[in-house]
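N-terminal acetyltransferase A complex auxiliary subunit NAA15-like isoform X3: structure tokens wanted.
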Amino acid sequence: MLQSDQVALAGKTAVLFTKDGGQHNNLHDMQCMWYELASDESYFRHGDFGRALEKFIAVEKHYADITEDQFDFHSYCLRKMAPRAYVGKLKFKDWLHSHAYFHKVAAGAIRIEAE
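Answer:
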């Protein structure tokens, strides 16, 4: 539905699979980035640059939240003496901003600013 630019219908369908089954904010709270990126692209194709940029910024905020959560895990690993988990966390942090979704968000925001 999002690929055929039916954003409203896609939103109604997607919220059926959320916990409360009717609140669109649940998709944002669950950090459902694939949905947000697809709706961003649809808004961009329609020329609704304000909404598209708003959604791109929301996805970027997910990445900021994930990065911030890593600080809590840092102290947890040191406190529990879990070096294997700590090394895995460091590798994840290196990989986080290399993820394809992050690149799509950056490219989409740049396209909107260029318009």
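The helical segments are 7-14, 25-29, 33-46, 49-80, 83-96, 100-114. Residues 76 and 86 are 9 Å apart (CA to CA).

Cheers.
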